[in-house]
Amino acid sequence: MRRLRDIIGGSLIALGIAVSGAGSAQAVEIEYWQYVFDTRVKAMNRLIEEFQAANPGITVKHTTFPYADYQTKVIASASAGIGPDVVQLFYGWLDLFVNAKLVQPLPKDTFPTEAIEKDFFPIVQAMKRNGEYYALPTAVRSLALFYNKKLFQEAGLDPAKPPQTLTELLDAAKKTVKMESGNMVSAGITMDMAGQDHQWWREVLVRQYGGVPYSDDYRKVTYNDKAGADALKFYTDLQTSEKVGQMGFMDEGQAAFRAGRAAMTIDGTFRIGSFKTIKDFEWGVAELPANAEGMRSNYASYWTNAITAKAKGEKLEAAKKFLAFVSSPKAMELWLDAVGELPARREVAQKPQYMNDPVYGPFLKALDYSKVTLFVDEQAQRQITMDMTNRVLIQGQEPQAAVDQAAKEEQALIDRVAK
Amino acid sequence: MDETIGAEPRRRGLWGRLTLRQKQVIWAWGFLAIPIVFYSVVRFWPTIDAFYLSFTKWNLLQPPDFIGLDNYRRMFADPQFWQVFRNTFLYLIIGTPVSLLLSFTIAYHLDRVRFMHGLIRALYFLPYLTTAAVMAWVWRWFYQPAPVGLINDMLSMVGLPQQPFLRSTVQALPAVLAPAVWAGLGFQIVIFMAGLRAIPTSYYEAARIDGVSNWTILTRITLPLLKPTFVFLVVFASIAFLRIFDQVYNMTTNDPGGPLNSTKPLVLMIYQSAFNSFDMGYAAAQTVVLFLVLLVISLVQLTVLRDR
Amino acid sequence: MAASFKDARFNDVRPGKVIAWTLLFLGGVVMVTPLLFMLSTSLKPASDVYDLRLIPARPTLENYLAVFEDGRFPGWILNSLFIATVVTLSNVFFDSLVGYTLAKFKFRGRYLVFIAILSTLMIPTEMLVIPWYIMARDFGWLDSYWGIMFPGMMTAFGTFLMKQFFETVPDDFLEAARIDGLNEFQIWWRIAMPLVTPALSALAIFTFLGNWTAFIWPLIVTTSAELYTLPVGLSSFSVEQAIRWELIMTGASIATLPTLVIFIVLQRFIVRGVVKAGLKG
């Protein structure tokens, strides 16, 4: 799924941090699993403390696993009927778990459908199957444009006015790119399909060029039209004709940006922490640029909490309470402060102190129009998009042909995995 | 040996009544007991299991489904598999001759050098002691485009055009192969030198007296006598190149086996199928192919090189 | 040194020899260039990484401090050391025990056992990693030292190597010990083993190196960072550093330096061991 480097500090924590109470005979103990990421683990420990203080009869055992192994661990234990009562899942895994009957629908008494759809951002609807919700997130992530204020200034651009449209983006990239004897020494914008650019292309550029990447259930690939090809052409032109970016420059886009050798990069909420350590220059965040008609789009993703099929009786009651607590406004505020991930509820996200935050604001604004791609195998689908781009960049294939081939490959993959 | 004679225990009972030969047999099987269990559980059983798994569809979640030859059909219809198959052979047919030619040339000349012999040998041998997964990162840095990459920086210093290396579908495979050749040279050189040392100097002296040229000595005496060394190194190197993984995995973490699968070897495809897609049956079918390829290559090489 | 020029092969010093020597020497320097640049970059501040000079203009240990602040490297080094040592000891013990039994005992089934063990050489470990992984999962060995070590505790290669060497041990020695009243285990351990010490050290060096650099199996079987071996740790560390080359080179230097220092101290011994294991195996 997502790469190891996103969990940088996290791996310091060992196999399991068990937070268990004294365990009186009447107490119900439920088990909660998530993956290791230092700030997430600490935030969850604080939430559990508060939850246990408010619910003296319930103890929550908090177990964590390293990110890389998390999916396997969850799958292996769930299939053996052991493991957690409440489990954190990547949104894209839901089908796998629902189909294998490893998770149960959220009981409607505690989680009425109308309330969910009113209070949460629409991206949460990806958790709905056959009219029932199966999981709820605490926090979500989206994409934004990071820009280097110093390079903007040097190029004569106003560092307070990041590009608002694709045209302005291209213009800013042209002004900020630096070449020396034919070699790029500093990019206008990073090009990194292995990073977040594949999401940018899929859910943002394709739509901005008038297309739709997939059918509503994401089971049919529909980007193999002119819109898809135009979107790809816009992206690959950044390297081939505009020469403002270069795939593989400094190996990774974020590395180039951090080294001060790229004026702009598109990345997610999870990159904020790493960029905050930059000392050599100031940077800003802007919403992803709109198209000429002012249409914007974004890609959002999230980790979500579900109740496993194993939870029954009083454990189920406890699990319901716990899940309601970790998806409450209070939990979301704590999560944003401690982890830096965005609240999934409108009322929290739209508080002025968050909306006007120069760093979080642009990410939050995107949540209203963000899309959630329902991947069947995110890594394999990313690979297909990456290969599509490489065929244009390295082998000179026409964008239309590249898009057609990618659509065929991706459709075959979806058909095989999701049948 | 310093035990006193006659200390032999005169035990009665079952053990005492056995003949020396019978005791020997019991000792032998006793010594072999743990190893036999080990080889059965850790080698033979998994081999059978791998064959069995290759006929199943299994994602670790549900019990395995027996699907006959479907994994093999899917594999042979998968263009990626054939690309990977081709890559694997490219690693072999470029890597083996290049590294053997280099190492033999170096060993042949180094064998005749006395001045600072130990130091020079050490220089060539050092890379062999490095860890492939670690050095892959060093090489990956070398191959970066300017301004980061050492090689491209040097090229632009002398006015040569930049090379894409890992960003090219043509150059990436040799670029990934280079550190593997580099790391293996030291081993091959010392083995060749040991082989050269084993040739009696009297052969050379006799040839000298007959006034035979260096070239003739090389082709008529040295090479034929070195044949066992060659056979060993060709098999050894071929198997290593067919199983290349560490370098590719670490040099292409952003686009594993890329760009466009141009560097992906079979072992990486196996790794991805098994541990990224949890497609255990399909991965097992690929391992069976790897096994057969290794088997055929070893047998062919052994017969070809032995007969001539 | 000059004395060895008496050897028939070396008694003529011609210009060709000087050229050959120079080329060999330069080739050797090229061979270690990657290591030199790795070291040099690890001693440069981040801003000087793109400076090509081999000798750092402003040498600093800040990268090393940063990497050690990360705190995981010492653990990874110890893990690798522990695993390679245990596996090596196990191989030295079991491979020679089996090699000895197959070389020196006459019993029915001996040939069958030998062929069976030898045949496992034909099975690539890559074919076994999936069953091993499943086995480790079922037995609860995932993410444990034992999980990393179990597949390599004995090898057919080592067994074959030791069998070759034990065959050169004269039977008379063993017979004499038998008459002295030693039991078979004592004969093997006290009499036969000391006679093949060079082979044992060759096997030990080869096994240790192989496990010290092993990557794919530890990568698959370990999941928590504390259990990573050095190669897996370095690989994951490098990915996490997100292409900060000065830190990656520092990590690589830390992973490489111990072996190089040991080699420089024990050069002859190690080369001889590798040759012996390579040629007889």
For this entry, give a set of tags.
heterotrimer, A: 419 residues, alpha/beta, D-Maltodextrin-Binding Protein, domain 2, 2 domains, seven-stranded mixed beta sheet, five-stranded mixed beta sheet, 17 helices, globular, disordered N terminus, C: 281 residues, mainly alpha, MetI-like fold, 14 helices
Q: What is the CATH C level class of the largest domain in chain A, in words?
A: Alpha Beta
Oligomer state equals heterotrimer
Basic shape of chain C:
globular
What is the CATH topology descriptor of the largest domain in chain A?
D-Maltodextrin-Binding Protein, domain 2
- Strand runs of chain C, count: 0
* Computed structural class of chain C: mainly alpha
Radius of gyration of chain C: 24 Å
CATH class placement of the largest domain in chain C: Mainly Alpha
Tell me about the largest β-sheet of chain A. Answer: 7 strands, mixed
Strand content of chain A: 15-25%
The average pLDDT score of chain C comes to 87
- Unreliable runs of chain A, pLDDT <50, ≥5 residues? 1-25
Distance between the termini of chain A: 21 Å
Count up the helices of chain A: 17
Largest sheet of chain C: none
CATH fold node name of the largest domain in chain C: MetI-like fold
Distance between the termini of chain C: 33 Å
Number of helices of chain C: 14
CATH homologous superfamily assignment of the largest domain in chain C:
MetI-like
Transmembrane segments (chain C): 18-39, 76-99, 111-134, 146-166, 187-209, 215-235, 247-270
Family (chain C): Belongs to the binding-protein-dependent transport system permease family.
Pfam families (chain C): BPD_transp_1 (PF00528)
Domain ABC transmembrane type-1 (chain C): 77-266
Architecture overview:
The complex is a heterotrimer of chains A (419), B (308) and C (281). By secondary structure, chain A is of the alpha/beta class. Chain A has two domains: 4-142 and 301-371, D-Maltodextrin-Binding Protein, domain 2, CATH 3.40.190; 143-298 and 375-417, 3-Layer(aba) Sandwich (D-Maltodextrin-Binding Protein, domain 2), CATH 3.40.190.10. Chain A is built from 17 helices and 16 strands. Chain A has helices at residues 38-54, 67-79, 94-99, 113-119, 149-154, 166-176, 193-208, 226-240, 253-258, 272-275, 313-326, 329-339, 346-349, 352-355, 360-366, 378-393, 399-417; strands spanning 28-35, 58-65, 86-90, 103-104, 128-129, 132-133, 135-141, 143-148, 178-180, 183-189, 262-268, 283-286, 298-299, 301-308, 342-343, 370-371. In chain A, strands 1, 2, 3, 4, 7, 14 and 15 form a seven-stranded mixed sheet that branches. In chain A, strands 9-10-11-8-12 form a five-stranded mixed sheet. Chain B folds into two domains: 13-53, no CATH class; 75-307, MetI-like (MetI-like fold, Orthogonal Bundle). Helix content of chain B is 69%, strand content 1%. Chain B has helices at residues 13-17, 20-53, 70-76, 79-110, 117-125, 132-142, 150-157, 172-197, 201-209, 214-225, 227-242, 246-251, 266-275, 280-307, and strands at 56-57, 65-66. Chain B has a two-stranded antiparallel sheet. Chain C contains 14 helices and no strands. Chain C has helices at residues 15-42, 62-70, 73-104, 110-119, 125-139, 145-149, 156-166, 171-179, 184-195, 197-212, 216-221, 230-240, 245-265, 267-280. Classes of the chains: A alpha/beta (419), B mainly alpha (308), C mainly alpha (281). Chains B and C meet through helix 2, helix 4, helix 5, helix 6 and helix 7 of B and helix 1, helix 3, helix 4, helix 5 and helix 8 of C.
